Amino acid sequence: MESIWSKTCEIGKKEALKGDIQADTVVIGGGMAGLLTAYELERSGIRTVVLEAGRIGGGQTKNTTAKITSQHGLYCRTFIEKKGKDTAEKYVQANQAAIKEYKKVICDEKIDCDLTEADAYVYSQDAEKIESEAAAARELGINASVEKQIEIPVSCAGAVKFPDQALFHPLKFMRALSEKLTVYEGSRVTEVEENLVRTACGSVRADKIVFATHFPFVNFPGMYFARMHQERSYVLALENAGTLEGMYIGDGKDSLSFRQYGKYVLLGGRGHRTGESEGGGKYEGGSYEGLREAARRLYPGSREAACWSAQDCITADQVPFIGRYAQDRPDWLVATGFQKWGMTSSMVSAMILRDIICKKENDHAEVFSPSRFSSEELPQIVKDSGKAVKGLTKRFFHIPDESLEQLRPGHGGVVETESGKAGVYKEEDGQIYQVDIVCPHLGCELVWNPDEKTWDCPCHGSRFDYEGNLLEGPAQEGICYE
Ligand SMILES: Cc1cc2nc3c(=O)[nH]c(=O)nc-3n(C[C@H](O)[C@H](O)[C@H](O)COP(=O)(O)OP(=O)(O)OC[C@H]3O[C@@H](n4cnc5c(N)ncnc54)[C@H](O)[C@@H]3O)c2cc1C
Q1: What is the pLDDT averaged over residues 204-218?
Q2: I want to staple 274 with a disulfide (CB 3.0 to 4.6 A). Which of 230, 278, 310, 357 is the partner?
Q3: Band of the pLDDT at 388, cuts 50, 70, 90?
Q4: Closest Cα partner for 174 from 279, 265, 58, 21?
């Protein structure tokens, strides 16, 4: 399940860190947020090193849909009502500034990344909501309008249009950016101690440390695990589905996302909280099948050229956490909680973190500050604390033969044994893979995801393949038996 971006762009491999080095700033994580932060810092004269556990862009960024827009759903009216006009305005301005900065960087560095200017639309069945959102967006300084007719084949009362947004190829952009930076790949950070960052084969001592790891993996201080959850969604690249000028997203739970890349329409959707896969439930065959059903309905003559999925961190108040990691760690900074709008949010992060490190005023920083407290966070904390199970030590259980016989080939699930629960997957050829279903991050019980044949954490969104290898954090180790 390779994205269209991975299929069409190879990034040359970089060496791993070997030995102990020093830098002004070390950025942990070579995704969009990490590379942009490193780039903005280097441009300001700050010597920066990036440590990436795997490959550049190999986290969520390779599976994005890469719309560069400040239109993050229908949020302007809600933000004005809940946070006040000043905060809402700063949120919008920060994202508009991010779009401008992308265009500037791409132009200054002459980056060939298929940048296309395009308008962004949110469509809805609710005509009043659309009118109200467009008016709110205009109050916040966006030249927004209501469009009654849109080019995608969905039924709706209309759409709010934000003009002059952009689309690009995220990996082509990152490939060019990485050539200007010091990046070590295959260098997972295993420990962070004040101003020292350690990997298996070396360390970096730096004045400032930026956590751009998608989900911050140091639990205390910060407690980001209690302030965010993760949501997955799915994408199909469709051939023979026509051509779109704009980018689109629907309002509401079952909304779909549309954009063009080359000859493909990228159709996204069927999102759910990680660990709550729809497989075997609403859609026969799971979330991918749900999306395929939509593709057949909307684009009857189309052909699927690729499919993939990704997940993102969701905060309770819909605003990312960008700024100081925690009160008692003045040299640690963080960029996370992008709400599936990580292209502009990564650039907003890069600009805010650059200004904090360079001791410059930034008008937008306060809105994104992780030290803000929102009462909307409390129900989430209570909900997740119930999902933790005891004991983080790996346990191997003897699985009764009859349980294994009942499991169909190609399927996985939780099996009860005399001494506890175990996770089992049966290959098509009958081979059995057993894992411990206690998440090594904070001890939540993992659930089987039939869509992707993975073990997913319903609390914080860590994921593991059926052999137990780590796919996505915040966990930093797998669940296989040595
Ligand atoms: C289906 C889908 C579609 C989306 N489409 C859009 C869109 O159209 N527009 C938009 O704005 N946003 C979109 N998003 C959101 C966007 O893709 C993400 O927010 C963004 O890619 C996150 O970038 P990142 O750098 O924070 O994380 P990542 O790309 O995941 O980078 C984090 C990196 O940190 C590394 N890492 C982790 N732990 C360590 C460690 N201990 N040591 C060293 N390295 C480590 C990982 O290997 C990884 O490479 C979408 C999200 C989804 C789920």
Answers
A1: 98
A2: 230
A3: low
A4: 58
